[in-house]
Design a protein that fits this description.
The complex is a heterodimer of chains A (118) and B (111). With 118 residues, chain A is mainly beta. In chain A, 0% of the residues lie in helices and 49% in strands. In chain A, a hairpin with a 5-residue loop joins strand 5 and strand 6. Chain A is globular. The N and C termini of chain A lie far apart (37 Å). In chain A, 35% of the residues are buried. Chain B has 111 residues and is an all-beta fold. Helix content of chain B is 0%, strand content 47%. Chain B is built from no helices and 9 strands. In chain B, strands 1-9-8-3-4 form a 5-stranded mixed beta sheet, with no helix packed on it. Chain B has a 4-stranded antiparallel beta sheet with strand order 2-7-6-5, with no helix packed on it. The termini of chain B are far apart. The chains are: A mainly beta (118), B mainly beta (111). Chains A and B meet through strand 4, strand 5, strand 9 and strand 10 of A and strand 3 and strand 4 of B.
Amino acid sequence: GAVVSQHPSRVICKSGTSVKIECRSLDFQATTMFWYRQFPKQSLMLMATSNEGSKATYEQGVEKDKFLINHASLTLSTLTVTSAHPEDSSFYICSARPPGIGVNSPLHFGNGTRLTVT
Amino acid sequence: DAKTTQPPSMDCAEGRAANLPCNHSTISGNEYVYWYRQIHSQGPQYIIHGLKNNETNEMASLIITEDRKSSTLILPHATLRDTAVYYCIVRVGSGNTPLVFGKGTRLSVIA
């Protein structure tokens, strides 16, 4: 089945530093990937849509200069949290949908990256 | 906002069927019903989806009412590993669009 892989699974960084999270589609090409964020005891919230070869689109309230998204190839999207602060500590999850199966094909999710900013 | 309503939590005895309800009274004719689950500290896992017919796969069965305003996910023989948050999501079946998650149902399978 379709596999979406994230790296790293956990990261701890100091306040003010930047962290890069990678999302890869392992057995399919994804022109679009979606990034979500999940705070403790809450549901997933869509942050942005990553588009291969073009700029990402961000949801309202998500700072595009803080959460940099680069979709450099058809199998890789990266999310960089710049100048991280403790309030950015969260569970970040990416997802992608394999093409060609059908317009109602399911979205597949990575296993998430737990970011802790100290 | 999510277009579905689910009970916040449910318990189920191990080995019994778990029946998780979902209301989606404003569903449109071209919207599918998707079910995902999220085990603690993992990404959501796809379970099943359907439009109007009942569906079954190796994980679960999906029963959609005739008026499509509600559905039930059935795990036929729940195990402890089925303890998770289950999300019912409606989505138009066209375009590469994201899923909008509600709060889901926290299912606890008890030994």
